[in-house]
Amino acid sequence: LVGLQLRRMLRACRRPGRTCFRANRLKAGPQLFPRLRAAGWRTSSGPWCEDGFFLEDVRSDAARGQSHAHLAGEVYFQEATSMLPVTALRHAAERLLASPGELAQGGRLQVLDLCAAPGSKTTQLGAWLSSLGLDEPPALVANEPDGDRFRTLRANLLRTGTVNWMLVRGDGQDVGGLAPACFDAVLVDAPCSGEGTVRKFP
Questions:
Q1: Which residues are annotated as a binding site for S-adenosyl-L-methionine?
Q2: The SAM-dependent MTase RsmB/NOP-type domain covers which part of the protein (predicted)?
Q3: Nearest-CA neighbor of 83 among 38, 43, 53?
Q4: Which of 41, 63, 122, 133 is the most exposed place for a label (fewest CB within 10 A)?
Q5: 83-187 has which fold?
């Protein structure tokens, strides 16, 4: 990037990002938002995901991270753009569910999150799969090769009450060979340049 394009990118990177969270329907009841409002949270609906919301106040990250709603797994702080891949996969997978005979495991939906840690998309997938109410519970497999990130992923799955999951710690290039033709949907949000995080750490 040079000239005007570079200046526009730098200007965009200096603009603070909006804090977004996802309401976790596995744990959050109807009193979640009244309690959040009572605690001083001002929220507005986010794009793409019906459970996504912007936090409009300016509380510190530490305060949000120590809130009861976060620690209890009722909310998961997640970039709005991070919710989009799961929303796209969800629409594709729901078309498969309309024809159960096409599922790889004979009627049981199986989903793989190939690059899963720290777990924002994995827990989003888990909440959606649980909401389907299928007779045969869907299976969620999450892969993460890094040891520290693997432990963070596991902790977030437990904190959010996600069910019917299995963790794999391996190279993403090898996972398909371990379970060929096993998954109906695969989410791959691969490690990238990280340019989107510049706003967080200018």
A1: 115-121, 144, 171, 189
A2: 9-202
A3: 53
A4: 133
A5: Rossmann fold (3.40.50)
